[in-house]
Batch of 4 targets.
Target 1
Amino acid sequence: MGLATIVLDNLPLLSLDLETTGLRPKTDRIVQIGAVDPFDSAVQFDQLVNPGIPIPASTTAIHHIDDAMVAQAPNLAAVFSSLRGLAANRVLIGYNIGFDLAVLQAEANRHGLEWEWTGALCIRQLATIALGSQAMLMISDLEALAQHYNISQANRHTALGDAVMSAGIFQAMLPDLKEKSVTTLGDAWRAVGELDQTRLLQANAGWVDVAALNQQAEPLRSLARIDPFPYQHRIHEIMLHNPVILPAETTVLQAAERMKSAKLDCVFVGNSADKIEGIVSERDVVHAVALPLSEVATARNIQLGAMMSAPVITVREQDFMHVGLGRIGHHDIRHLGVVDENGALTGWLSLRELTRQRLTQAVVIGDKLSTAISAEDIRSALQELPLLASSLLADGVRGDEIASVVSGEYRSSLRRAAILAEQMLTDQGRPPPCDYAVLVLGSAGRGESLLAADQDHAIIYADTADSPQQAALHQSWFKECGQLIADMLDSAGIPYCPGKVMSSQPEWCRSLKGWQEAIKSWIGKSRPQDLLNVDIFFDFALVHGDVQLAGRLRRMMTQRAAANRGFLKLLARNTGGAQAGMTLFGGLKTDNGRFHIKLHILLPLIETLRVLAISRGIEAQNSAARAEALLKTGTLPAEIGQFSEDIKFSLKLLLRQQIKDISAGLAPSSKIAVEGLSPSERHLLKAIQGRIKNLEPLIQACLFDR
């Protein structure tokens, strides 16, 4: 299931190697990082790193990297996000990779960075499986193993050179592993998991035991722990019907043609539904014909009976879905047969189909919203958001990406409410008096909403009135439209904004000229309420109506704000975060065991990126996009990019808490339970708090010391 069933030569891989100041994982530092995709050498990472401490001469004698070579190199924090991005969704491989992973984790903790990986395989452990323990007694290091497999040893003891060697060794040992019946990632994990002595020695040295880590539950099984869907639906509700059953004498070519015409990903082998002998999947067919051209014709004539998987693992129609998920995970397979009470085959479960159903849930919600004709329809669609969010989180989707999905649904809800409100007034013989645009503000505008949203929206309309009387009529129409929008969203489960930031209010429903005058006043006077309005309004996004109106307003707003240094100074002071929610002794300040992560972490970081973006005339709304654009200016320190990573991490923690609260019948909030944090998560939160406490001098330097 998942990565575990992928054959080794099809795995998304990254061969990784580090050069360090020594061999103590917890205390020594990285001086060079090298990485390469074993199957695509164009994908490489080669970077010197300033360790911040002297490099011992004894270590320099090995890798030839001295203090002078790294003096101008970036520190780890500056390059870490690039490495993490390259490693995302790839299995890491390397010679004694457990050491490298331990060093990376220690460095991440030291710098207050998040470090996770999909999975890992140690080249030395794999070689022990491929060649046997006795043979490995004669192969003492990477060089000897490379020599055994006739792999070039060019650039030995450079990070990239060793990563390239490990990648070559991995490819060369695949036939040996296959002879040991190790063909998939799951096979490899199970095999190295039995190397108890090797693993014990490495773990005692402080290395990461990658074999132990890889024995954790698979994504769909973790999904079952928090997602009620598998416990609410039976197999017969989700299974695929009309399974194709072919005789064992059927050839691969005949089976492939049948699967292609019927758009199937598997067929069953047997004489009838109650006499099933085995199963053949499309992956089996691909492997059967993935041969040299001269052998393809022979492969096509292989009979299914000779290549089928048997026996067929099955579930009953009346079993709950979680039974099927558990069975898929336990047997590391992609398909299950479904049988009736008499044991006859009636259908099957496909992991691909199950995944497709979960991933298309967002599309279903979007479709419901786009066709909604009432507040109840919108509510019905939005009620599926927590389930969608929990499914995506369990499937390993990042918190910021889920926030983007959730924000998109809130935007769609506002768009649909605006369309319905306009239609109501039009049906009364009162169509819109002029062009207009509906804007979503705040977190939904940035694409960072989670599951505790309220309303934040505004209306801009064109300056087409010929008289004060007509202007008043226009204002009245759009204010009424805004009220209909607000009432509809409240009925749909998105409550009224406590601060009344809604287009039903005159200050949030203006003509273009009215908005321009308001923004001039906010920036010019910069009173506390003005700064609060700027915080809300500067993150707007168009959801319905005239694009040009919204574009003109944004350009004017960005240009005027960037030119007013006094306004920027006041806005910078408004970012907060001086205490970052710390107790007197540096702990997390809590209320009834909960830490206000939005107030103490998210808002200071989001507001900092906003004010810096305004100062550089950057129009991006999303925090990550702002951080990226700011770094591209070349005028800001690299640590600005870390703020985006900190926001993503915090969003993940908050989303996880909101899902847990909703499942317990509690209202989602902006606080997280401290007791639910792992030690590493607490460590990272405290590191983020440390960065937030230093925001004020950083902003000062970025805005005014230039």
Target 2
Amino acid sequence: MTPTDRDRVPHRLLITLCTVGATLMQALDQTIANVALPYMQGSLSATYDEITWVLTSYITAAAIMTAPVGWLAARFGRKYLFISCLVGFTVTSMLCGAAQSLTQMVVFRLLQGMFGAALVPLSQATMMDIYPIEQRGQAMAIWGVGVMVGPILGPTLGGYLTELYNWRYVFYINLPFGILATIGLIFFMPRSFQNFNMKFDWIGFSVLAVGIGGLQMMLDRGQDQDWFTSREIITEAILGALGVYLFVVHLLTARRPFIPPAIFRDRNFSAGLAMMFASGTILVSSSSLMAPWLQELANYPVETAGVVMAPRGIGTMAAMMIAGRLSSRLDPRKIMGFGILLLSWSIWDMTFWTPDVSTSRIALTITLQGAGLGFIFIPLQVLAFATLAPQFRTDGASLFSLCRNIGAAIGVSVTSAMLARNTQALHAEIGAQVNPFNRALQGHEAVHHLWDPATHHGAALLDQVINQQAQIVAYIDDYKMMIFTTLPSLLLLFLMRRPRRALGQSAETHAAME
């Protein structure tokens, strides 16, 4: 599509609404089923370990099928692939809601993940095609609302639907949006070129599927299986490492791999992938730590905890809109640098939190945290794709989604594992200091009687206090680790160059570099 054609795209607003709707559907389904798991467990007569496959099957299938989206779009046409995946996602959502057994639910979630994998990269590539380069920042801001806010709103919406109606409505809610988005794309999305002569790289896809599947399974089930003390986790780790290694070798030696190696020659894009991976580790892990902190340490009710976490999404949306307007006027690297510093400061402030911290301080900090993510996400999309050749956009969008999802999986797994292990270690360390020789505990009769370990009640209270203190310090350790993950991202900005479009140049040509 030429720049002139892009400026004249009819029904651009309707196409935007449909693509954003498809993105929001897929992003919501990553987290919306989490709160409904206990209800599904009883309805489907499943154990806790079995019911987690409802999440694992969807995440793993989506991760594996994200990589070949670029090839599928080139082979069958982006419009026809988009519509097919949207119809498949809507139908499998209804099947998930109607599932009568655990086996049916896992199979339908697997299919739902396969169809849903393409929705985010296809919608991103479509938005970049229908908007000229000077409006791409605002377009990515609108599109980014679905990607960034969907996982944040998912648990809250899922909780309300489950409480007011039934857990099945967590999946049924996709029906009206899926129908409207499908109809809109059928009538208004421009036709796309199909290349039926392309051959699929089965070897590359197979080894990548083994690598991503093994890594994803290891990360999802590692905490429950006690990590590398389990044969299952060791097997998954070996398969994941072997699959990734073989894929890299195949990518460098094969004639026509399904992911074109030329895409990585673009320095902005390659640095952008690393930045997206780092941002992904913070995007979900920060909110996954926040929910139990509010409920278990600060003793907020579930409903109140959801309300307290809402400002994070508000901060993200506001920052996205601001960044979308500024990206065409200011150097996107400066906006991203500001976002990284703002995100790091918000996490640093959380290292001082105790259960006595005020609600207003919590709201302010997580609002700024959400704003930091918004200031990173939008300029990153603009900068990474500005110098990328148009034929690589769908592949690039797929790789961005893959890096974000893998980063999120690693972030959640590592922070959860560190929290559990540090809590146990600190519990033992603090408990060892509770003895008759500790002067801090001497001379306080009230404390001695209240926490008397010789009585059942006193031992329980003492253990509760020690566990609370251990958890507080363990959360602080997690937040410190997140800072050391975020701040090094500033170095990636020096690898990127701001694209400058000369007056009269085509928007499709590579821009000059500063």
Target 3
Amino acid sequence: MYLAHSKNDAGETHPLRAHLTSVSALARAFMEGHAMADETALAGLLHDLGKYGDRFQMRLQGKDSGLDHWSQGASVALSQFQAVAAALAIEGHHIGLQRGSRESLRRLLPDNLVAAVRPGLALSDPDVTRLQSRAIVDGLEFHKPAVPTITSWAHAVATMLDVRMLFSCLVDADFLDTEAHFNGNVLGKQPRQEGPRLDVEKALAALDCHMDGVRASTRAQTNVRGARESLWNSVIRAGRLPPGLFMLTAPTGSGKTLAMLRFALEHAVQHRRKRIVLAVPFLTVIEQTARIYEQVFADFPENFVLEHHSLAGLGVESERQDAEGAGERQRRLLAENWDAPIVLTTNVQLLESLFSNRPSACRKLHNLMDSVILFDEAQSLPQHLAAPTLAALSHLSAAYRSTVVFATATQPAFDILDSAVKRHAVNGWQPREVVPEHPELFKTLKRVTVHWPKENAKRTWVELATEVRSADQALVVVNLKRHALALLDAMAGTDGLFHLSTNLCAEHRRSVMDKVRAQLAAGQPCRLISTQCVEAGVDVDFPVVYRAMGPLESIAQAAGRCNREGKLNEHGQLGEVVVFEPREEGDWRRRFPTHSYYQAAQVTQTLQNLRGDLNINDPETFRAYYQNLYDLSKPEIQNIDLGRAIDELDFARMADVYRLIESNAIQVLVPWAERWADFESLRVEAEGKGITANWMRRAQGLAVSVYRKKDGPPAWAIPAKMWRGGYSEEWYILEGNYYDDTLGLNPPKGEQVFIA
């Protein structure tokens, strides 16, 4: 008997034939209803063909090591069945997807296989004919797929996504069957507990019931309530439209969060969708949304709403054996492949997975089939990634029966990039509007007056501080942390002064926002100095907002924190948004965080000079802004490295260069006073046992991201000891008194520039 794995704890073996048959059937089921199903099943049968080699069977006895057991199956898939996608998926199911070029595929042909094996490895058996013969004698049958997955690489982003989807089915099936074996007992394999299914009718009833409560308790102005009802009715109508690409354009404060969910559930009822995935750009938004969803689905099974982001499950030790620990373990298992009816995640998690080559990241992708995928705050998609991202999402919708929705109050004119998108995916980007009457909603919900700066009128921080002090409650949003610190210094001693930036750890930021909301609700003095982290989706309501000149969408997002509930309208007033220009000397680096941010700010200023004061309540203003911005910045040609990886069909390189956020950062554990005991516990554990994955999860809420310096780690933080030996290059622990209850991480003078 040929074996797939070593014995489990119950002493049970895992026959190779049973493993290959199970993985093939499960992978096919994941791809059900798609033309790729046959090739996916073939990949399942061939993925561990090399385990029929004598050396691999010796390895299971501990008598051999350093073996490649995957390349032989990839070789058979390619040479005998012309199944290119299956060959790439099989080759990558341990080492990650590699390259789809002819030169790379030629290495997988039987005559080249020995030379193509990675350094340090040897084939378990170089004779693929012998391996296949053993598999056939073992009862396996191999058939050429009727329809090949890959016939052309003409639309490379789309075709590479096809490979990833097949890869996803294969690796998830492989993980699940292997896990079931090692969890098994004398009765056989024990599959994991599946996640709950999407009960759409019950979910709709729960949402409608929740909305009845919201309507009954709201204190919003009559016109705000009317606009929210209009949006609600629009999403219900649009939810009945055929699946595809949509954009949902609605003003801040119109109830967009719940309206998106209503659209998704209505669409799921009409078109039998299996899952709803909501992706947001910022953790502040996801936490806020999670609280709302928890209220709506409070009576539903555990993990009906699954959170998958860096702050999910913080503080819960998976090793604990009580009910809470078991529940957290189950959440983490379901997060591996998104086996839940509603998934709340981040743009980073979803979009980087769509361009990944790693089994762990791609494993969940097949569960995006037959789903409704919602992107909140869609304007946050970086320009340099726009064309390939839109192409991948377009193909996901067209080929895998998924509906994609881009929702925001400041809708980017991505359809302008349609021709660039079509170079990567045949269907391009032409979404339908969920709310055709949205211009009227913006007029109805006008809640602010925007005061634009006169040409060359710039304020010093002292002048701005004097003006902000005159308002009992005001929010100031600046472009750089250095600017926030300068204004805080100028306002020292002011009552009700708060600071918010990513210099503060996540738990500290949450605490600040709770205090700010309490001050606002009580009518107490409250002046919040913040970077852009307060803008998109954060539910806070100031009567006055000051916003440093920046991209138009950022100014509009800041305005969304002003008179958010329309309370001032009840007294015949509007909120006041003051756009100002700081008096800063030097080039753009002294005034803006990135060059693309600077370009967008320049387009805003140019439009203002040409048109006069810009109307942020008019969607046409934003269309003109984005047209000018795209003409200037040429997003379709910005990312040369990514374009080269696409042209070369290089999955590994693509995964490296497709990044939504700068990854060159370290995490620093900080001693925030209100959580000192937790910090001390984590510090002692790190110094004693060393840090583990569980430690990192618990530390996330007390960590601050800091740019990695070229000349080494910061002098004010020490690397954390790893439990397996050595020291981490990613995690550090703050040394010295450099964490302030107002400023957050405040390292020695001259080093603030390294804070991410």
Target 4
Amino acid sequence: MNDWSPQQSADLYGIQHWGAGHFRVNDDGEVAVQLPGGEVSVPLPEIARGLRERGFDMPVLLRVENHLEKGIRRINETFAEVIDESSYQGHYRGVFPIKVNQQSQIIEEVVQCGRPWHHGLEAGSKAELLVAMAMLDDDERLIICNGYKDGELIDLALRARQLGRRCFLVAESRAELDLVIERSRALGIAPLLGVRVKLSTRVDGHWSSDSGDRSLFGLTATQLIDVVDRLRDAEMLDCLQLLHYHIGSQIPNIRNIRDGVREACRYYGGLLEEGAPLGYLDLGGGLAVDYDGTRGGSGHSRNYSLREYCADIVEGVQEAMDPAGIPHPHLVTESGRATVAYTSVLLFNILDVATFHPEPVDESLPEDAPDPLKYLLELIGNVTPRNMQESYNDATYYRDQAREMFQRGDVNLRLRSLAERMYLAVMQEVAVHARDAERLSAELEALPGRLADIYYGNFSVFQSLPDAWAIQQVFPVMPIHRLDEEPTRLAVIADLTCDCDGKLDHFATGEGVAHRLPLHPLRDDEEYDLGVFLVGAYQETLGDLHNLFGDTHVASVRINDDGSFDFIHELHGDSIADVLSYVEYQPDTLYRRFRDSAEAGVRSGRITVAQRQQMLGAFSESLRGYTYFER
């Protein structure tokens, strides 16, 4: 332990890669939140202590406002630099898709931080459009309306246009276009229109099946011509000023982005030839986050930098437009994931550990011990690199024999327990020798996973990390303290839901994605806190109420230039009464029914009046309490 350094922990967990300058391990062995430039940082354990002192038990979703501001600034400044260096004639206008994180504090911060660059919002529903209309007061900011639209949504967008907002209605279908034309005429308001094209470009990563010809949304070339003809007949072709496409979220390969730009520019030029004025090219989302720190082409990473992303878009558009003499369009991207992922960290404590290390086995057995137990005992202490496969095979065979004897009633429970302990002792010896072997059977390769500890975390995967369950998204996970000590245990992490899917078993490490996470042994009377990083995109809204675990506490901090920090927002998580009401229970009704049961208990003599009052008090207090484990 004394030979272990914080730098070794940083290398082990790969924080210098996926942390991307937002997080680092400090000299005291703690994860620190870092400001741009690296000169100012604040230890996460210090923030966690401040949360506990303010009455916020784990788990807590921590938002770092500085990181959201950094995300907005970086994409706008990088595009501006590339545009200036390339003498590109259009400008850049970013929009944040509200669906990525609809929480009001996030949207307020996006609007505030994006003000210098006229950063706008993308809305895919009436509710999101109402948010955008109320939050944006700058006529230079864009509001992009995607998704299917009814008359009410279209009317709202037209009213926003009447106020001078640059609110684009992006057509997804012919029927939708007819409704836009009808409502525009009825209200006497000319719309700003866009069309979403379905590109043939395919992308890598998790969303590859939704790209190309099988994309769920967008217009084909034939449908685009139909839209142009319909607008021309309605004398509204001059309203068509934006071409939009979206080839997928979390695009890991820069070649996909280049291919998409090239194909979209052909559509842009074709629409200009048809008489549409255009002026804006909206490339949608897709800017990926390097969740696993490998900077590769996997679905959890990306093989490009932000600057390369911006440069390839700008240069790609120039190369397509300049030979044809087409004016450079204004560029729009809808980057949400890359904007807010780094903003949020889920902090939780470990409650207990289940290990697969057996208790010491005596060298003597009961006289009536059956042969399988005797053979298992002979294997202990005799495993070598040469015989480890044979030892594995023999131990498994004898263990299975002991289990069969137990099922027949020939072995009692105590002897069955002893057989299991001896089997685990042999497996631990085999695992030690297997570490240094060059070639292993599939059984021995899987053995470390079977022997890994289970650390029970105070959180719900389904509520706080739904993508880890639904699409096997990898999120960086690591202890936020004790990083000057060597983590000697390998573990998977289980949540509180009593569900076999309620676990984390894919982890970002310095060597790529692993199925077990190095952790420290628990200490008595000391919390062991872990952080799940890069969870700012999608996780809060997608979470569900599995086992009626509700929203966690939420706290927002701002790091100051002098290294201090302020808690800007604090929001208590759902109470038990809250989550019960979400599934249509009435807490008052439940309390009244329990009160009636307690009163019946008094009448029958099962409890006293004093006990009744204690029970009712406990019931009422629990209704007001946190849905997660409390010390």
